[in-house]
Amino acid sequence: MERMNSCLKSCGVILFAAGLTACSTFPLPPVSEQGKGLRQPEAEYRVVQPGDTLYSIAWESGRDYQDVARWNHISPPYLIQPGQRLRLFPPAGAGRTSRPESKPPVRSDSQKKPVPDKPETAAPARRVPPAAAGRLSWVWPAQGELLERYSANGPNKGIDVAGKKGQPIFAAEVGQVVYQGGGLRGYGQLIIIKHNADFLSAYAHCDKIYVKEGNVIKRGQKIADMGNSGTDRAKLHFEVRYRGAPVDPQDYLPRK
After folding, report:
1. pTM for the model
2. Which residue of 29, 47, 93, 142 has the lowest C-beta tally within 10 Å?
3. Largest CA distance in the chain
4. What are the C-alpha distances in Å from 240 to residues 19, 166, 172, 255?
């Protein structure tokens, strides 16, 4: 019996040592990486919901609206219907974009303009495209302290301007309203303005909104009151997109 117990103890020591060797050969992943699931692939299609526009869907998915229109055979004025299924990736054999790659133009010193003190007279609603030719000349969309800057590698793809609820928000450049609503998660009440074939701008967390989809807007025109919809304080989150890609708004706005 003693001989058997001794044998069992010896086997236990051997197994324990083998276990240590195995652990040293195949270490467990760091605690911070345990339990993390694989990143889910991006959806290839998007079903149109009430209130969506082609521009808002392209904005939300980080696409150029012209590419989304081309992939889905949609012609200007890019009307879509609830329940319609839109492709967000190019079909097989089609290129990612039909437009040649180019870097967005940036501000020149001659473009500097002051932030307007009061809104200009509202333009009547017209369903016509905004003027597309020539260099744009931007103005600040709101007055206030700059809370957060654009981050190319971080989550903030625009700038945040502090203010008070009810403070005016102005159109940064002439254009046409192509989306107005609260359907984009994280933006609250949002306005998207198309300035030309390349540039769009967005004004998030609005309170009262004074424009509708299709309105042609002047530079410096009051389009909304600042609010805290979709966020924890009164502020304006302002973004600029060039051919669907976020760019730093301060590359275009006058220097303060």
Report:
1. 0.73
2. 93
3. 103
4. 58, 23, 10, 16
